[in-house]
Design goal:
- The chain is of the alpha/beta class.
- It has two domains: 132 residues, Rossmann fold (3-Layer(aba) Sandwich), CATH 3.40.50; 203 residues, Dihydrodipicolinate Reductase, domain 2 (2-Layer Sandwich), CATH 3.30.360.
- Helices cover 35% and strands 28% of the residues.
- The chain has 14 helices and 18 strands.
- The strands form three sheets. Strands 7, 8, 9, 10, 11, 12, 15, 16 and 18 form a nine-stranded mixed β-sheet that branches. Strands 3-2-1-4-5-6-17 form a seven-stranded parallel β-sheet, sandwiched between helices.
- A hairpin with a 2-residue loop joins strand 15 and strand 16.
- It is globular and about 55 Å long.
- The termini are far apart.
- Bound molecules: NADP nicotinamide-adenine-dinucleotide phosphate.
- The site of NADP nicotinamide-adenine-dinucleotide phosphate (NAP) has 33 residues, from helix 1 and helix 13.
């Protein structure tokens, strides 16, 4: 039994609040975010009462005051990556464990990098507290799938392809399935993959292949991107010789993105407009549909998994571990589509691992550093069942 403070009342925060409320491990829940009404709206949907609060998670003293008032055992951060370091600072000051789903990004630079957060390791260790980084689906479950593959199937993992497919459709001309600013920064960044101890950079979305997804989803075009779990996985699993991340995009999505990029609407540097500074991507976010509004409109499924090649008992082996999540089923259960669902469920399970001390340590950790078995079991139990096939 434990107290949890959830920060962020967006698409993912809503799923986390629902899932924590379903699980008896979380005795007291407080949901805090920049806009109190959003917390209250989510609280009203839940099966049991929770506390809500307003907080600016970029303001460390405000966070410290809130943490001291709520007295959580864990701060579960599902606001935006810009807040990671501020919330970690507040956890250090108050001596409380920390969990997030996305690595820190500075506002003015679209760059995935764990180093900023790994640099907190000694301070968290000295304070006797734990930080679990990237407990969403990708990163998150994909890291756990790799740890599971290593534990159950391989003596040595050689090649890893993480493949993220959203085969759903929301019927809108252009919309992103999660925070548009974060999503577009990620997609328009250069591609990057790891091969033979080196990082190879590619032009944004310039490398693509076809992949045949299971269970009727069928063949889709996948695009090589850089994604943060590649950095931690290649560090913690040094036998990996090649690691890549792929994502599907519809032609329609790419067409819109190309035009928006060409006219400068995806820029993240401020431009002067009628005497004030505006960031084009932040302005674009204000125009696009709120991802939360796509929940009731989205049909179809996601399929995210790891295709892993390696060696077992001296022989080559290839294993594919994946989850399929249905947008409409997710919406029926928690009022959010599968993108938020597949992030929020692992965030809740990561918190559960920490609070029950099944995953325990002092310092800053990534998901693959712990025993994957209890996490894999909870995925099946809490709505993200997985399948593994030897190919
Ligand atoms: N690992 C994965 O698989 C994965 C996948 C998808 C998303 N994510 C991550 O999950 C996180 C949440 O995504 P989302 O789609 O839920 O985003 P979202 O819908 O935009 O929600 C973000 C929430 O954070 C709040 N917030 C923003 N700045 C804040 C601040 N300074 N202080 C307090 N609250 C603040 C927002 O408040 P307002 O409502 O007032 O704006 C909003 O409620 C992001 O970090 C995203 O990168 C991870």
């Amino acid at each position: 039994m434990a107290n949890v403070l959830i920060i962020g009342a967006g698409g993912v925060g809503q799923v986390v609040a629902h899932k924590c409320a379903q699980a008896p491990d979380f005795e007291n829940i407080c949901l805090a975010s920049r806009t109190l009404e959003k917390c209250d709206r989510i609280a009203a949907q839940l099966s049991r009462p929770i506390r809500t609060a307003q907080v600016d998670a970029d303001n460390v003293p405000e966070l410290v005051e809130l943490i001291r008032a709520v007295k959580p055992n864990l701060v579960l951060h599902v606001a935006l990556p810009y807040q990671d370091l501020h919330i970690m600072d507040a956890c250090l000051e108050t001596g409380v464990d920390y969990l997030d789903t996305a690595n820190y990004e500075p506002l003015d630079e679209a760059r995935f990098c764990y180093q900023w957060q790994w640099d907190y390791h000694e301070r968290f260790k000295a304070r006797g507290i734990m930080a679990l980084l990237g407990s969403g689906f990708d990163p998150g479950v994909t890291n756990v799938f790799c740890a599971w593959a290593k534990k159950m199937h391989f003596d040595e993992i050689r090649e890893l392809d993480i493949i993220d497919c959203n085969a759903g459709d929301h019927g809108q001309p252009f919309a992103t399935n999660f925070n548009p600013e974060i999503n577009i920064r990620e997609v328009t960044a250069p591609g990057r993959y790891y091969e033979k101890e080196q990082w190879v950079e590619t032009e944004p979305l310039s490398v693509s292949e076809k992949f045949n997804f299971p269970e009727g989803i069928g063949s889709r075009k996948i695009y090589l991107m850089y994604h943060e779990e590649l950095e931690s996985l290649t560090r913690h699993m040094p036998d990996i010789q090649r690691a890549r991340f792929w994502m599907t995009f519809s032609d329609n999505y790419l067409k819109h993105l190309e035009v928006l990029g060409n006219v400068g609407m995806t820029r993240i540097d401020p431009v002067e407009y009628e005497g004030r500074q505006i960031v084009p991507l932040q302005f674009l976010k204000a125009l696009l549909p709120d991802p939360g509004s796509l929940g009731p409109l989205t049909r179809g499924r996601t399929c995210i998994g790891c295709l892993i090649r390696g060696i077992k008992d001296g022989k080559e082996k290839k294993v594919y571990i994946y989850n399929i999540c249905d947008h409409e089923k997710a919406y029926d259960e928690v009022g959010s589509q599968a993108i938020s669902y597949t992030t929020g469920v692992p965030a809740m399970i990561g918190a559960m691992m920490m609070l029950t001390k099944q995953w325990h340590g002092k310092g800053v950790f990534n998901m693959e550093e712990f025993d994957p078995a209890p996490f894999m079991e909870k995925l099946n139990q809490y709505g993200l069942p997985w399948t593994e096939v030897t190919l």
